[in-house]
Amino acid sequence: MSIDTATELQHAVEDAAAHLYVWALKDIPQDLRDALKGASERETSVPGRRVLSTILRNVEVADREGNLVCQDTGIAVYTCYVGEHFPLHPARIYEALRDGTARATVEHPLRSNAVHTITRENTGPNIGRRLPIVHWEFVKDWDGLDVKCVPKGSGSENMSFLKMCTPADGVKGIKQFVLESIVGAGGKPCPPGIVGVGIGGSADYAMYLAKEAITRPIGTRNDDPLVAELEDELMGLLNETGVGPMGLGGDVTVLNCHIEHADTHMTLNPVAVNYQCWAARRATAHVAADGTVDFDREA
Amino acid sequence: MATHEVTFPITDEQEILKLRAGDEVVVQGHIVGIRDRTQIRIFDQGVEPPMDLRGAFLLHTAPGVRKLGTDADGKGRYEKVCIGTTTSARMVRFTEPLGAQYGVRAICGKGGFPDEAIAPMREQGMVYFAIVGGAAALETTQIEEIEEVMWEELMPECLWRFRVKDFGPLTVGIDAHGNSLYHDVQAAAQEKLKEIYARL
Questions:
Q1: Which domain holds residue B136?
Q2: Of B61, B84, B164, B187, whose Cβ has the fewest other Cβ atoms within 10 Å?
Q3: What is the CATH number of the domain that holds A87?
Q4: Using CA of residue B4, residue B6, residue B10, residue B12, what is the dihedral sign?
Q5: Which B positions 30-69 lie with beta carbon below 8 A of chain A?
Q6: How close, in Å, is residue A248 to chain B by CA atoms?
Q7: Is the CB of residue A241 less than 8 Å away from at least one CB of chain B?
């Protein structure tokens, strides 16, 4: 392809990223709206009902005023599914995502959260060294690109936990660690949200999988029936703990529990927990090889 | 669980003492935005805050704003874009001196304070209000105006004075009588975990 076409495609991805970041912050997906409504109908505690009805009111106000659902514009996390024949190299896709993130931050304007991790000085409009964060998946026999933007707030990201369980701890060890993590987190990660769990792989990969898990549409299930069963069981157990909306006590502690897994070493049993707050923002762009973009709130 | 309307800054301590953990509160008047770096400057770097905090309601926030211009005295003027609330637990150690040295009466944030806040709040006659974290679109409509911004160099962790109308609903998370919803919920959840673990 010509250089001009590559440049145009890079601009299309940049425009898509700029749109996605703001859109994700303002217009939460339907599955999340449904889950929050369901939670408010199910909740019986007085403070819990107060919290959930305020959340529903907040989503309505965000729609009406065109404002952000939550002030924490987060760190922009993107998951890219890149077709093997997509005519723009991932190095340029990354550049486009970074430029789009910065442009959206300046133009809206959005609060800029990015700081140097030692000096704590701001590093730019939600960009910096290795920011934004991009997860990559590559798809054979395809010429498209899907970009999912998940602005990740710090309140929930601070409630991330890793334990290298032993093989002898088994699945029981995994369940206990998820339960103790979520109870210990209390109201800090803005419950009720999505508990993302990564199991297997290595220490770093388990956490990567936990992050993948929170980006799925609510209530989707792992394609391995054993893992799907564990998702259902953990969701039920977590909602027995009574932590409740915003940690004020109640029936609904989590909207759901998603698990992603990888095979692992015979002596490893890693379990990672990554929390996604009730404002579980995400938005996707499908980019065709010719630069046409379709936006999709539900993917 | 009662419902109250309270106007800040308060002058009568009884206004605080009548609030009980679990009660619903709606706030009127003026509130003060504050965050990590603001309090680090006051207490760790020993810089006196240039704002009277007696009877104040402090909100844990780092607002998203748009700068409108600069006044003749060099102070920036700002309008709100999106104002929400951050996690309080990081700032719990400032509770006692905020009450004892500056007369602060209420701290509002999300996620709650750990048990170490219970004694200072009882001794100083303070309360912790739980707001709904993430509900910033609604919160922004309840903040009528950004009246004053001090320590702009800490943007967005400045000292902010907001005029509010019908700010809430808030839940009293910790009252001035030694009660904490967070303590009670956590204690019950730990008991529940024992029972769940026995079943696994």
A1: 3-199
A2: B187
A3: 3.30.360
A4: negative
A5: 61-64, 66
A6: 6
A7: yes
